[in-house]
Design brief:
single chain; two-stranded antiparallel ribbon; binds flavin mononucleotide; Rossmann fold; six-stranded parallel sheet; alpha/beta; globular; 39% helix
Length: 182
Amino acid sequence: MKDLTFVGMTGSLRRASRNKGLLRCCASRLPEGVRMEIADIAALPFYNEDLEKPRAVHELVAQVTAADALVLACPEYNYSMAPALKNALDWLSREPDLAPLSGKPACLLGAGGGMGTARSQYHMRQICVYLNLRPLNRPEFFSNAFSPSFNADGDLIDEGLARQVSTLMRALADWTRLLKQA
Ligand SMILES: Cc1cc2nc3c(=O)[nH]c(=O)nc-3n(C[C@H](O)[C@H](O)[C@H](O)COP(=O)(O)O)c2cc1C
């Protein structure tokens, strides 16, 4: 079986982000035959059609195009998704035929307030419709960013949640391989 590459992205840019911590946990809990890169979207300018495509966009397009699946960590800002992640998807969506995204499997997860980023993730699912991303339905993963499950550096230190991350990564690998057969 061919090895798979996942690419992770999150809308929180801060150093000690728990959503970045979730992505690091994903990268450390992959099933055999899967590798994962975490895309740095901090250097992307806000989408502006007047700009010549910036180098950071070229790099992101290449990285996402080469990926077999996406891992989207979705912080929740004001009951919706964080703008940095939407902006990255907006840039990617300007490629002809949505090429980096269309048909690509994805999974969602997040760390946030009381609802664990549920509202942000459901807005993301709506956006996946137009982008023709293929989000995994289950398992879902919601976590409380303000609990002792995370340390001061944003690392996930709760073993129960980390096991859920492992299950999610296995499910994404299975979903990706299933779609490749179709
Ligand atoms: C502008 C802003 C709006 C926010 N709105 C929400 C919200 O609507 N719901 C929620 O659960 N958390 C909200 N939060 C809290 C974030 O979910 C919280 O900062 C979370 O830790 C972000 O993840 P991070 O640790 O990866 O930065 C908001 C934070 C910011 C900065």
